[in-house]
Amino acid sequence: MDKSIIRFNHCDKDIFCCFVPDECPECGVRFSGKRLEEAPVSIPNPFSNGHKVPCAFLVAPTEDSVLRDFDGHSDLHTGVTNTNGVVYNYTRTGVHRDHQGWERCICIPLVQPDMFNLISQWDEYLEKFSSAQMWDPLWQSFHEETHNCYNYTLMFINCVLATQSKPALSKKEFTHTFVLPRIRRATKYMMLCREISQNHFYIMNSPRRNSQEAPSEEDDRIYST
Ligand SMILES: [Zn+2]
């Protein structure tokens, strides 16, 4: 279910739902004719169509539990898009170039949009890297833990960092900085969807918000000038 979710605030509660009801589900006050103190805020859907996001790292969730347990070692499937949205991903049978199947995933754009030089070479880098000589010089075979889709994507990311004379990212660093925050948001969103589809609302105590919301990490790009 991917309806858009909104959040509004009433009687010190944050109320998540798909549309503003006639009355507050918590205190029962009728809203008819009255305006809410704060306009409802829409909660961005953390999933998008990976084939429409060029030069991105993709995480395809399979089930809730896989997302919840994700720690960089689990068998989540990951890939990298070229500039046309073809998803390069590594499986037991080698590197695949998928034109479909990644329509609902977490997309992490990697390149600042004005890095034209890098973008113009991206497809060539990705294709070259994916040929066995570079990614798999020893003809190692697929291994759940050590030679899997996550290693493939991270190694590609690091190869491109090297072309930019930037230091490599460790698996831990990459996972904690770029992947986990998005996974957490996606997990929360899936929980909201589930609650709303069962109970129409999800109600929680309003956390104290700073007047300025914390800046989103969405804008961080691994490749930036
Ligand atoms: Zn209320």
TrEMBL record:
- Name the domain of life this protein comes from: Eukaryota
MKRN2 opposite strand protein-like N-terminal domain location is 3-28
Q: Please give one Pfam family short name.
A: DUF4796_C
Enumerate the spans annotated as MKRN2 opposite strand protein-like C-terminal domain.
Answer: 40-196
Any stretches that span the bilayer, and where are they?
none
Protein name stated in the entry: MKRN2 opposite strand protein
Q: Which organism is it from?
A: Triplophysa rosa
The beginning of the lineage is: Eukaryota, Metazoa, Chordata, Craniata, Vertebrata
